[in-house]
Design goal:
Blueprint lengths: L7 H10 L6 H10 L1 H12 L27 E8 L10 E5 L26 H8 L3 E6 L19 E2 L2 E5 L5 H8 L5 E5 L6 H7 L2 E4 L20 E5 L2 H11 L29 E5 L10 H16 L3 E5 L7 H19 L13 H7 L11 H17 L2 H23 L2 E5 L15 H9 L6 H6 L3 E9 L2 E8 L5 H13 L7
Parallel strand pairs: 2-3, 2-6, 9-10, 9-11
Antiparallel strand pairs: 1-3, 4-5, 6-8, 7-8, 7-12, 11-13, 12-13
Amino acid sequence: MSIEKPTLSQLEDIVFDLGMTLTPERLLEFHSLMDAAVASYTIVDELPDEKPIVTYPRTPGYQPIGAENPHNAWYVKSIVKGAESGPLLGKTVALKDNVCLAGVPMMNGSATLEGYMPDQDATIVTRMLDAGATILGKAHCEAFCLSGGSHTGALGPVHNPHKRGYSAGGSSSGSAALVAAGDVDFAIGGDQGGSIRIPASFCGIYGMKGTWGLVPYTGVMPIETTIDHTGPMTATVADNALLLEVLAGPDGLDPRQAGCKTARYTEALGRGVQGMRIGIVTEGFGWANSQEGVDAKVRAAGARFAELGAVVEEVSVPMHRIGKDIWSPIGNEGLQVQMMHGNGMGFNWKGQYNVGLMDAHASWRERANDLSDSLKISMFVGEYFTKHYRGRFYAKAQNIARRLGAAYDTALGQYDLLLMPTLPMVATPIPDADADLTTYVMRAFEMIANTAPTDVTGHPAMSIPCGLSDGLPVGAMLIGKHWDESTIYAAAAAFEGSGNWREF
């Protein structure tokens, strides 16, 4: 691209925007002093970018319609075959459409990014392909991942395979629907406020949000670095543990991964829960929008764990009730600064920047009216509090988040795992296309009270299906100590093996 020095008029606008006043003579002097910096930018522009090598052939694919996409869960179908051997050989995968797959379109659920074609693979894509997996394409997701419902994506709502017209959850809506429908063995989801676990709960599958930093986020479009998670969504616990083994571990490019500790998660599957201590978190139940059938099924899950040999007791974590409130400044202000003003990448971290994605996403400013209303309300909140309160609430929430994490750690000092409903409710009806704004936004955020707090604290948490209420799946959430996904898998596998969850 051509690097141009700012005109005097452009520099004058910058000075004004920064709240400064310069005389014409002073302005001209500053203008001449910019020559050296512009020359450096020119050199950087002429150098080749540093990007991961793409090794497996693929085509751009196509957008399936009609009977080929009954739940509107696919964005693009494009077959990418991995290595001819490995632990994932014969397994099929759908990628959430915030994951970069070179040469295949990516829109992250938003019309403003439509037409973007990544030129690099995410680290997790390379790891799955190297392990023998076959990628079948990209799953539709919610607009820039800002919804726990499945009604905000640019290509229309994603339907729950258990009941058409009902939410598949979000923001990894298509990922959950494709796994639940049996179209793929694995799917990749993302989780900043619950976006792996919410659709897993609504659709009756297993969704693991590992410890923050366990799975490299490189090549996945960020929302906010301190709450970004990506991970596996599967129909069985064994598949989930197997996929996490492949995904987990540092890649040297993601600053989220300091202190990362991995394990052979599949080795935990037969361990059982005999003698395990599980604390049922009192504050995870009885929200204003909690459904009695959901709370009852999760308490029954606790009783089933006791029958399997675990010690199950009630435990109180009072700060859990305000965990979502602590998440709010971090989520809203953080996304506005990094994902929107920062063109998806932001600044001030070392690692792999996706320059092409930054260029493509920057065009949202020309099409801001086309952004989803769920993103707009988050942007309005984030912009207001950043502009008028100097970011102090973001900063304070990050400080208080340590206290929230310590509250969970105190409970986890007494128990191996914590248990609560993943969500207060089962899948809700998808809002009509002409639904009022209040309904649209409510359906996007009404379910995150139990999931959002562990995005802030980084504790691993998994949604497991534990029964049906009104004919729709109920999810129970298991929370573990940092880097202790193995204990979660041990409990989840024992629960899964105790019977058909649909009959619990």
